[in-house]
Structure formats: structure tokens, C-alpha cells
């Protein structure tokens, strides 16, 4: 467990940490693609089922609601059974509602399957857990952010590619009413294939798999497992502060993924394809922006300055809030896209900076902390969904959310580490008291 990688060798697959790094971000990419595959097709689905804006809001809420509970559960499961078994199981079980949504015949059945698909979003916690146990303190922020960011880009890829896939199926002579169903089968099959590769080529930690290490008595003393991890994390106030900050960055990210295509079509009159490309550009920022946020956090923390990670997160959230306010009030499609890219850059970087802090909050209860913070992102998305349902106007909702993001940035400052907390964190030299 202690033989963690102290560097990231991107083109190497020879070591367990690097195999886990590459397979976990690819698995998260597939899950994120499947999670948001419906979103860019919603203008078509909305027309077929005759959905109202309230029903669209309900679908968007369902897409992220159940993820809150599954993320809380999945962290302790990683501590108990290991990320390898947990990820494989999630991929296989998650493929069922992904395939099922293609067979929905009514608003109610579509809503039910969309609710089930939300469980796939818990894959993020496993990705962050797996990289955290594989990489040392000097690079863990970068590893976490890069894996999550590249995986997150699956949302942007879905926004851009699903409309193209629908068009390709239609060109083969399939009616549009059936072609969106055919298109949605693809991500379900991708998840099944990915489950095989994750089971075959990864292991839980540098030393091996948890069940084998437990049998030999080689897991480190003091590590929390299962619900003990969750209880330990619940007692740590920093976990709940980061729960709020992650809700204000990743929650906004999910919300934008769900409403961007509809917003561009209805507010600016774009075609479905053009709206998908515009919305997809937001998600594709994750290819580098999350990693940049984690790298900045690692860079700022050199020399034992653990609280510098907190300062980086605070600054990024301020940038996110101001950028979101600009996007909400942008006149014209050009300014709207530019504003979206600007605030999206800060949003993705803030997500990376948040999880660069997670491994240091309660190292002996990593799964519990990762689950709580990850759930915060979905709580933020659900809250944003209910807010939009209440206002009935996307632009007004975005304006209110920008103010809430700015207020949430104060939680980052409140998460500062004291000298005692820092000294108890492996690999983190003591810092001055907050």
C-alpha cells in the first residue's frame, strides 16, 4: 500500500499505478459519456414525448439525484472490497438502465431509466479513490485531477457526438423517432466492454488486491474499512465544507451539461448539431482544465504549504462565479460561447483543486471522504435543477447560481488546515494554524 508512484509516466503501462491511472480515466470517460448521452438528444426526445419544461426539469433532476446516495455508498465499498471489484460491478449494473432508456415508451418509463442511469455518476468516486491510493502526496493532486478531467470530457464528447451518431443512423434509413434509441444503445455496450478490461488489467493498490492482502494481514494498520470509513469521514468538518465547494463547481458543471443544448436551441435558435458542438466545448475543457487545477494545487503546496491548496480553490471559485454571471447575461451567441468557455475553465479547475485536497482531509477514511465530497457535486446539481424548475427560466437560474457560487467560495477558506491537522496528514508537513 505504501509503494505509491511519485511520478506520472503517461506513456507507461508497465506499473500497477499507471495501468490503474489509464484504465480508471477511460472507465470514467465511458461512464460520463453514458450518463449524459441523453442530454444532447433532449430536443428530439422532448418533441417525441411532448414534454413540458417542468418534465424536462424533472428528468434533469432524476439524472443526478440518485447519484448522491450511490456516491455516499460507493466510497465505503471501495474501502471494503477495493476499487477493482467496485468499478467492475458498477459498470455492469449501470449498463442496464443505459440500455433500458432506449426502450422507454413514455415519459414515466424514460424518467425511471434516467433515474437509474444517475447511479453511473458514482464512477467518479472510484476513479478518485483509485488514483489516490496509487500515487504519492507530491503528485496525487495532478493524478486525481487529470484522471477525473479526462474522464469528465466524456460528457463533452457525448454532447458533440450523440447528435452526429443520431444523424448517421438516420442517414441509414432509420426514422428519427427510432434513431435516437439506436444511438443510446452504443454507450451501454461500451460500459460492458470496459468492465472486462477493468477486471482483467487493474489491481486495487500498488501491493495487490485488498482481499489477498487482507488474507495475508498486509493491509496497513489504522486504515478504515467500509462503514467505519464513512463514520470517520462524517465526523470531519472539512469533508462537509468541501461537500459544499464541490456542489458549487461540479454541481454547476452537471447542470450545464443537462441544459446547455436546450438553452442554445431555445434561447439562441441554434440547430441541434450546432447546439451540441457549443455545449460539447464546455465538457471538452475537462481534457486539460481539471488537470491544470490539480497541478496548480500541487505546485502551490510545494515546501509544505498545505493551506496554499485552499487558497487556490478559493480563487478559482471566485473566477467561476464571476464567469457564470457573465454567461447568464451574455447577449448574442458569440459572447455566450466565449463566456461559457471562460467560466467553464474556472469551473473545471475548481473541481480539480477540490479533489487535490481530498486525500489530505482524513487519509485513513479516504473512501468516506471521497464519497461525501463527490455526493456534494450531485446535491449541487439537484438543487440547481429545482431552482430552474422554480424560476422556469434558464438565464435567471444561471444568475442566481452565480451568486451562490461566490458565497460558497467562503467554505474553501473555512477548510484551512491547523498545524495539528496537517501534522497528522501523511506526506503533508505541518503548516501554521489557521
TrEMBL record:
InterPro entries: MFS, MFS_dom, MFS_trans_sf, NO3_transporter. Its main location: membrane. Signal peptide: none annotated. Keywords: Membrane, Nitrate assimilation, Transmembrane, Transmembrane helix. It is a multi-pass membrane protein. The chain crosses the membrane at residues 20-44, 56-74, 86-104, 111-129, 178-199, 239-264, 270-289, 310-327, 333-358, 365-388, 394-415. It is found in: Membrane. Residues 20-426 form the Major facilitator superfamily (MFS) profile domain. Belongs to the major facilitator superfamily. Nitrate/nitrite porter (TC 2.A.1.8) family. This is MFS transporter. It comes from Massilia consociata. The lineage of its organism: Bacteria, Pseudomonadati, Pseudomonadota, Betaproteobacteria, Burkholderiales.
Amino acid at each position: 500500500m505504501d509503494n505509491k508512484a511519485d511520478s506520472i509516466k503517461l506513456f507507461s503501462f508497465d506499473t500497477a499505478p499507471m495501468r490503474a491511472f489509464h484504465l480508471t480515466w477511460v472507465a470514467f470517460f465511458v461512464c460520463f459519456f453514458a450518463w449524459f448521452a441523453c442530454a444532447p438528444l433532449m430536443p428530439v426526445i422532448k418533441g417525441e414525448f411532448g414534454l413540458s419544461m417542468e418534465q424536462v426539469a424533472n428528468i434533469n433532476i432524476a439524472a443526478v439525484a440518485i447519484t448522491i446516495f450511490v456516491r455516499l455508498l460507493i466510497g465505503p465499498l471501495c474501502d471494503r472490497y477495493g476499487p477493482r471489484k467496485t468499478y467492475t460491478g458498477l459498470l455492469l449494473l449501470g449498463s442496464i438502465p443505459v440500455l433500458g432508456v432506449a426502450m422507454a415508451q413514455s415519459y414515466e418509463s424514460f424518467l425511471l431509466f434516467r433515474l437509474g442511469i444517475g447511479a453511473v455518476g458514482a464512477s467518479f468516486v472510484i476513479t478518485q479513490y483509485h488514483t489516490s491510493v496509487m500515487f504519492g502526496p507530491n503528485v496525487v493532486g495532478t493524478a486525481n485531477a487529470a484522471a477525473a478531467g479526462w474522464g469528465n470530457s466524456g460528457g463533452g464528447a457525448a454532447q458533440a457526438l450523440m447528435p452526429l451518431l443520431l444523424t448517421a443512423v438516420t442517414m441509414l434509413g432509420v426514422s428519427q423517432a427510432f434513431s435516437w434509441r439506436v444511438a443510446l444503445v452504443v454507450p451501454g455496450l461500451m460500459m460492458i466492454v470496459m468492465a472486462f478490461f477493468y477486471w482483467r488489467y487493474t489491481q486495487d493498490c500498488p501491493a495487490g488486491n485488498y482481499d489477498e492482502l487482507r488474507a495475508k494481514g498486509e493491509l496497513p494498520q489504522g486504515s478504515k474499512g467500509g462503514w467505519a470509513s464513512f463514520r470517520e469521514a462524517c465526523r470531519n468538518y472539512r469533508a462537509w465544507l468541501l461537500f459544499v465547494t464541490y456542489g458549487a463547481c461540479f454541481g454547476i458543471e452537471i447542470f450545464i451539461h443537462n441544459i446547455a443544448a436546450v438553452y442554445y436551441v431555445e434561447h439562441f435558435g441554434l440547430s441541434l448539431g450546432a447546439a451540441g458542438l457549443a455545449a460539447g466545448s464546455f465538457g471538452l475543457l475537462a481534457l486539460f482544465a481539471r488537470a491544470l487545477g490539480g497541478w496548480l494545487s500541487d505546485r502551490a503546496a510545494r515546501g509544505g504549504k498545505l493551506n496554499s491548496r485552499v487558497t487556490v480553490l478559493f480563487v478559482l471559485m471566485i473566477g467561476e462565479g464571476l464567469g457564470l454571471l457573465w454567461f447568464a447575461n451574455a447577449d448574442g451567441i458569440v459572447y455566450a460561447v466565449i463566456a461559457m468557455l471562460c467560466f467553464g475553465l474556472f469551473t473545471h479547475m475548481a473541481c480539480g483543486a477540490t479533489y487535490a485536497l481530498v486525500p489530505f482531509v482524513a487519509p485513513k477514511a479516504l473512501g468516506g471522504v471521497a464519497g461525501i465530497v463527490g455526493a456534494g457535486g450531485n446535491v449541487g446539481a439537484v438543487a440547481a435543477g429545482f431552482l430552474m424548475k422554480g424560476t422556469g427560466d434558464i438565464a435567471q437560474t444561471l444568475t442566481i447560481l452565480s451568486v451562490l457560487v461566490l458565497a460558497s467560495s467562503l467554505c474553501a477558506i473555512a477548510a484551512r488546515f491547523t498545524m495539528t491537522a496537517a501534522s497528522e496528514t501523511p506526506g503533508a508537513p505541518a503548516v501554521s494554524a489557521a
